[in-house]
RNA sequence: GCACCCUUAGCUCAGUUGGUUAGAGCGUUCGAUUCACAUUCGAAAGGUCGAAGGUUCGAAUCCUUCAGGGUGCACCA
């Protein structure tokens, strides 16, 4: 049927069709076990004493599905790993999944409620955890399979899950050690309370949402005070103003004033404090220390009474008098009405815009409360027993904040792009103690034991009569240990010795502060080592118009659909080329389609070369030591030198772009075109020389492109009659 | 309010120590194609490099101010 003189392998007679090839290639890689660096050494493909290059995969949620952000992360990390593996490094890319406590528990609770109309309290702790386990077991297969489809050469033999036995052990060990070192303490402080999920939330997880509310001005004795939250005002018996405020000169600090308030006459005390902004409103304010961080701090400074007004569910307490027992939402208007009837409402500004704290993890409004919780003190001095840091010697006294500054200032950890350093320092300087405990059931249970007033922090029960703290740890606590808990810590394993500190942490800039900071705190205080040498921050993947992808906009591009339609290679390239680190990527389907064409181009280049080199074997040295086509070879060498440099500088976008253009515009459009003439009119010697050049260069190209588009290059490699290794994945990077 | 980023062809973006005539992909228009290429090739059109000022022999690039877009953080009684 085919009339062409082709004797090239059958495979190349049809266009490259990714779905026909990708599953087979995946199976080949998986069977080889080459993603495991130990296998590489066993087979003699990597030297025993080779330098290590390691990346720990930022673990996706067990219950999640793959989205474009994950796809970008996987593409970038896989490129780095494949490149270093081919370069002869002991390359380890360690996979895992995250339990994502809050998100997972509320998801499962929601489903149970929908199906059975039962809450977690109906089920009980044990049953809920059992259900969550079933759910996570089922759904983790999804994310793992999707991850594999991207071509990720992860070492699955080292797979870790934040809730598996070893990681649980590491979390317990870390908590106890940090407590013993004095870093973790228990204390009554104001927390971000989520009345909906009935748990505390860390500062980082709070999202401020703009909201319009009426702003009330009330008469408070001789003062006018403003508020958007009349329902908190019952406990307000302190009125605070700036000491320099001329308007209130005649009032003295500590002065008592009798005045009429919501539920009758009260005695108010004047407090002078410099934190008051004189230019805001009347310059006088009342405070609610139990439900506001700033008010709490003022109260602590002056030793004032702190009384709760609202309970954990948002219900007013007896202090509210006739309003007690009402939910704050409903009580607000009734309270305003009452004040109105007493003639205490001076004026109401409608449409006052302010920011309201919400729980970004699917919760509701945040209601600050005072609670006894476990905290990680960022300014607490402790003795670091073992340290490998430049500026912090073993046995010295330091604080977590000092560590956080030191490792970046000394460049032991390099943040890329560099501009994020500024943001990092700003964040570190404003860092407050981290509230570790969560009133959730799913998570690592805090290893603290109570008996009456006694508290013991240790892994196992101290004995009869001791009860374990019912709370669990913030999910980021276990995430903070990730670089070393996955390598076997607290045991002194060979993996830990070889692969820690890891080479690169690659993640989205949006979680720099959730995660990166915590990893540094944990790693340095527990192992004395930095967790990673480079932090590579990728941008967010947006739609073609630069909008965030969201369900409501209907502009989500699903990576799996893209893989099915255009192949994983095209999906990878579309996320790499044009995606400078730290900048957002605009992705449109057209772009993905464009790179599918490129895979096909490569396919046809191969076909041409194989057709024109029938029966010709690659001559060692002939290509390298031939003075005639020197310009072509110099160009090729230069290309790889450039690509090498770009990859070491983490400019994967430019490296891929360079290869792309060489292959298409130079190699295919010019060199191959020219070869047609050579094969038609050239002398035998010229032909031979050109055949050798094409055969060799094809292999260079396949190697160069392999980290970026592993499938098509491996598929072609499998069809080559002559090659140095069974799999391109482990071929040697050209030097 | 403070900070950071972006603004270059119709669209998406390169252009990293300042150095010829500012580039690519997609799109558009015209043409070629018995050729490795359904997914090919060639060519053309398309730019006051956000604005203004400054430094310099020379500025898309460095500095200042401003405008528009985006993001983070803080405040909000």
Give a quick set of tags describing it.
735 residues; Isoleucyl-tRNA Synthetase, domain 2; Isoleucyl-tRNA Synthetase, Domain 1; 27 strands; 41% helix; RNA-binding
Task: Please characterize this protein's 3D structure.
By secondary structure, this protein is of the alpha/beta class. Among the domains are: 172 residues, Alpha-Beta Complex (Isoleucyl-tRNA Synthetase, domain 2); 169 residues, Isoleucyl-tRNA Synthetase, Domain 1 (Orthogonal Bundle). The protein contains 22 helices and 27 strands. Strands 6-5-14-18 form a four-stranded antiparallel β-sheet. Helix 4 crosses helix 6. The longest helix is centred in the last third of the chain and has 30 residues. The N terminus is likely disordered. The chain binds one RNA strand of 77 nucleotides through strand 8, strand 12, strand 13, helix 11 and helix 18.
What name is given to the CATH topology of the domain at 199-370? Answer: Isoleucyl-tRNA Synthetase, domain 2
The percent range for strand residues is: 15-25%
State the share of residues found in helices, binned by percent: 40-55%
Give the overall average pLDDT.
87
Total helix count?
A: 22
Termini separation (Å)? Answer: 43 Å
Level-2 CATH architecture of the domain at 199-370: Alpha-Beta Complex
Shape: elongated
Quick one: biggest sheet?
4 strands, antiparallel
Fourth CATH level, the homologous superfamily of the domain at 199-370: Valyl/Leucyl/Isoleucyl-tRNA synthetase, editing domain
């Amino acid at each position: 049927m085919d009339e062409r003189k082709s004797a090239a392998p059958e495979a190349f007679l049809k266009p490259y069709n990714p779905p026909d090839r990708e599953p087979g290639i995946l199976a080949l890689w998986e069977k080889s076990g080459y993603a495991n660096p130990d296998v590489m050494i066993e087979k003699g493909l990597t030297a025993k004493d080779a330098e290590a290059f390691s990346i720990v995969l930022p673990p996706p949620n067990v219950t999640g599905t793959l989205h474009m952000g994950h796809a970008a992360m996987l593409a970038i990390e896989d490129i780095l790993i494949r490149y270093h593996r081919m370069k002869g490094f002991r390359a380890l890319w360690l996979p895992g999944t995250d339990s994502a406590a809050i998100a997972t528990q509320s998801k499962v609770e929601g489903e149970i409620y929908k199906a059975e109309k039962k809450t977690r309290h109906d089920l009980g702790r044990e049953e809920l955890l059992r259900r969550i386990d079933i759910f996570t077991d089922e759904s983790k297969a999804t994310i793992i399979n999707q991850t594999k489809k991207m071509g990720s050469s992860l070492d699955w033999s080292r797979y870790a899950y934040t809730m598996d036995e070893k990681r649980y052990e590491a979390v317990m060990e870390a908590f106890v050690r940090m407590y013993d070192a004095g870093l973790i303490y228990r204390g009554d402080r104001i927390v971000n309370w989520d009345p909906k999920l009935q748990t505390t939330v860390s500062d980082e997880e709070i999202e401020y949402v703009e909201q319009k509310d009426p702003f009330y001005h009330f008469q408070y004795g001789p003062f006018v005070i403003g508020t958007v939250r009349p329902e908190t005002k019952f406990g307000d018996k302190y009125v605070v103003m700036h000491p320099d405020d001329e308007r209130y000169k005649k009032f003295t600090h500590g002065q008592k004033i009798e005045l009429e308030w919501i539920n009758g006459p009260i005695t108010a005390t004047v407090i002078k404090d410099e934190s008051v902004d004189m230019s805001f409103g009347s310059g006088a304010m009342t405070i609610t220390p139990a439900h506001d961080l700033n008010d709490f701090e003022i109260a602590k400074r002056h030793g004032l009474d702190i009384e709760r007004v609202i309970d954990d569910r948002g219900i007013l307490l007896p202090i509210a008098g006739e309003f007690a027992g009402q939910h704050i939402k409903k009580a607000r208007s009734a309270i305003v009405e009452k004040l109105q009837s007493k003639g205490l409402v001076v004026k109401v500004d409608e449409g006052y815009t302010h920011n309201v704290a919400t729980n970004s993890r699917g919760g509701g409004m945040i209601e600050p409360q005072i609670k006894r919780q476990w905290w990680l003190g960022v300014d607490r001095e402790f003795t670091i027993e073992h340290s490998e840091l430049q500026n912090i010697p073993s046995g010295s006294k330091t604080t977590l904040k000092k560590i956080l500054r030191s490792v970046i200032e000394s460049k032991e950890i390099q943040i890329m792009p560099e501009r994020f350093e500024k943001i990092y320092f700003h964040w570190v300087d404003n860092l407050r103690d981290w509230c570790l405990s969560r009133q959730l059931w799913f998570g690592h249970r805090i290893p603290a034991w109570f008996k009456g007033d006694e508290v013991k922090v240790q892994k196992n029960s101290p004995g009869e009569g001791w009860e374990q703290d019912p709370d669990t740890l913030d999910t980021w606590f276990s995430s903070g240990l990730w670089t070393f808990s996955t390598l076997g810590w607290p045991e002194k394993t060979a993996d830990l010795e070889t692969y820690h500190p890891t080479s690169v942490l690659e993640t989205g800039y949006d979680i720099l502060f959730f995660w990166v900071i915590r990893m540094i705190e944990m790693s340095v205080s527990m192992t004395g080592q930095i967790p990673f040498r480079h932090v590579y921050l990728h941008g967010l993947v947006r739609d073609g118009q630069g909008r965030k992808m969201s369900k409501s906009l209907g502009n989500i591009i699903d990576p799996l659909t893209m893989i099915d339609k255009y192949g994983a290679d095209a999906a990878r390239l579309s996320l790499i080329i044009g995606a400078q680190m730290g900048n957002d990527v605009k992705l449109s389907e057209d772009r993905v389609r464009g790179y599918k064409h490129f895979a096909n181009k490569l396919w046809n280049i191969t076909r041409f070369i194989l057709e024109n080199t029938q029966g010709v074997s690659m001559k060692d040295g002939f290509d390298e030591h031939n003075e005639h086509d020197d310009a072509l070879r110099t160009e090729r060498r230069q290309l790889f030198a450039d690509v090498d440099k770009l990859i070491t500088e983490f400019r994967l976008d430019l490296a891929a772009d360079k290869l792309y253009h060489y292959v298409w515009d130079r190699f295919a459009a010019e060199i191959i075109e020219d070869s047609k003439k050579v094969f038609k009119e050239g002398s035998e010697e010229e032909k031979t020389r050109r055949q050798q050049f094409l055969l060799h260069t094809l292999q260079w190209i396949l190697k160069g492109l392999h980290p970026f588009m592993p499938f098509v290059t491996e598929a072609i490699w499998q069809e080559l009659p002559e090659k140095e290794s069974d799999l391109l994945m482990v071929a040697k990077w050209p030097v």
